[in-house]
Amino acid sequence: MLVASAGATAVFVLEQVHTVVQDLRANKPLTVDRRVLAHDYFGGPETLLMVGDDWRPATRYYPHAVPHLANEMLLVRIDPSKPYISMLSIPRELWVPIETPRGEIGPTRLNAAYTGGLTYLLETIKHVTGLSINHVIVATFGRFEKAINELGCVYSTIDERYYHNNADGGDQYQNIDLQPGYQCLTGSESEQFVSYRHTDTSQIRDARDQAFLLDVKKQYGPQLAGSIGKFEKIFGQTVQTDPGLDSAGEVLNLANLLISAAGLRVRQVPFSASGLPNGDLTATPAQIEQSVHNFLHGGQAPPTRQTAAIARRVRHKAALAGLPLTPTLAATVAAETAAKPGIPFTAEFPKVQDLSGSGAYPVLPQCTTVAHACIRDYLIHAPGGQAYPIYVEAFSNGQVGQFYDVQGTTWTDAPLFASPNQTLHIGRRTYELYYDGSQLATVAWHEYGAWYWVHNTLTNSMDKGELLAIAEQTTPLGPVTTPAPGAPAGRPGGASPNLREVNVPTLTVSTPATSTVQTIGGAAGLIGLVAFPVLALLLLRRRRGLRRLRGELAELDDRQAALLASARATRAAPAARAGAAPRPRPDAPGGLADPHRPETLRSR
Fold first, then answer.
1. What radius of gyration do the chain's Cα atoms show?
2. Are 290 and 309 found together in one domain?
3. Domain final residue pick, 452, 476, 500
4. Which among 289, 390, 431, 555 is most buried, taking Cβ atoms within 10 Å?
5. Which of 442, 476, 510 is the last residue of a domain?
6. Closest C-alpha to 433, from 425, 445, 421
7. How many CB atoms lie within 10 A of CB 91?
């Protein structure tokens, strides 16, 4: 039974490792000098570099193909001794000393090092940061888009209205057309979101990429164990890896590390840098050292006690007066009133808004091609196809590219609401809080048969007090209606709302053929499962029999000891009586040598 079970386990593990290695071979391994990669060992920490390759073919708007540039350089640190996974994006616009093809050393953008090959990029990153990297994973935008479509979609929050069309004239760059709000992003929409980089800063772009990856982890992480084959195949078709992951041993090391870190929270580490007049970045050695130290050793638990105290204070007007908030502008209230009839459940809007952003981007009742801050109502489809009404109001906080959102929906079990980090009971409400490291990212609450929430900016630039105050001051606009449980996504009166549907692609997964090794491993496992209860029963019966035999042997030993003791006592009694009379001579009548003595006769 032990041999069969061990054999089944070994066959399963080795077959899974073999499958991973085969899936990773779907694309050609990366060309990289193994000497620039750090050695890993079983159970040890690892640093992974994930590169987003910006290569694109020539198009109508790109007369020349875009070269291989590192649009994203994301470092991921997984350390079993730490209660979190760290992510640090190195800005692609960071100016560093790079050797030119003519051998000259000159400062230029870090992502240009990728044109010299992956080995040169790794050497440059180590020279700049001092970090050693164990494995490298590279994905192009085309493969990334295909992977999201294979998964189905990713539920993520678009913080503002993104729009650009080259046909409109002006600057020519990537087309983008994204509406604000929590929604299910297809491959094309996901690619537009993570690659956009024209109206904000490098830190915001990196935060956008990291936020999307966190949404992927939150949605598909719980499904990994039950659908590992599907994810292996998609992953293998999407990325290229260094030759080290062509080894079963290194795959086992990484797999063990990922399994041990499956339940850990992820913390986003900002890269400290200063802006240049042209929009690029520069960093002093002290800034880089601080960023690397926070990446390797930083990290604090969510400040739950402090947040709870702030949440109670912001209910009072005195506390509100000390926050950078202003009463909602009359124009914003008018936009909310105009948008309310399209929302088929109780709509809640904030009575206050960020002071700095109140004049930066006015909130409009509809999201147009030029409206960044606006109100939108739409339908969101759950994985099973059920449609739920949802709305979003996007606000600016006054900084470039920084928008926060207030939303509501009747979809009560959306992935967004899974696993809150903290629950607070304040007044009649119960708030669910979600953190990004030690920063408050989302405040959500449930009432009137719907969920409502305030979502922080991409870089969590709003203080927790301001975010909690906006949530506390978010209340119904107009009469309250509570939909009946299980009611369809329509108006209370029965009319269907005029909401544009969002199509969710259907994922079709083919069932892989079972190999001979898998069949043998499965048979061995089945034998082990069947043999276990039978052998356990036989072992129990044998143990009972042995106990019974030991008891009988012990009883026999006791009886034997008692008989021996009785025999000794019987022999000793006559001798004791004889010791009191004179000892006769051997030759005397009745003596020991007397032939007529009874004992002598018996002896003869």
1. 38
2. no
3. 476
4. 390
5. 476
6. 421
7. 22
Locate 326 and state its tokens: 């202003």
For residue 457, how many C-alpha atoms fall within 13 Å in the half-sphere facing its CB?
A: 24
Rounded to whole angstroms, the Cα distance separating 268 from 546 reads: 62
- Is 576 a member of any domain? no
Judgement on whether residues 285 and 336 belong to the same structural domain of the protein:
no
- Using 50, 70 and 90 to split pLDDT, how confident is the model at 166? confident
3-state secondary structure of 517: helix
Tell me: the pLDDT tens digits for 55-67? 766 666 566 666 6
CB 329, CB 352: distance < 8 Å = no
Instruction: Map tokens 């405040």 to a residue.
Output: 443
**Entry pTM:** 0.74
CB 153 within 8 A of CB 504: yes
Contact 357, 397 (CB under 8 A): yes
125 & 258 share domain: yes
Structure tokens at 562: 């008692």
Q: What's the rounded Cα separation, in Å, for the pair 193 and 163?
A: 11
Contacts of 23 (CB under 8 A, 6+ apart): 232, 233, 235, 236, 237
Residue span of the structural domain in which 221 resides: 2-297
Same domain for 369 and 281: no
Q: Do 166 and 126 have their domain in common?
A: yes
Q: How many residues does the chain have?
A: 604
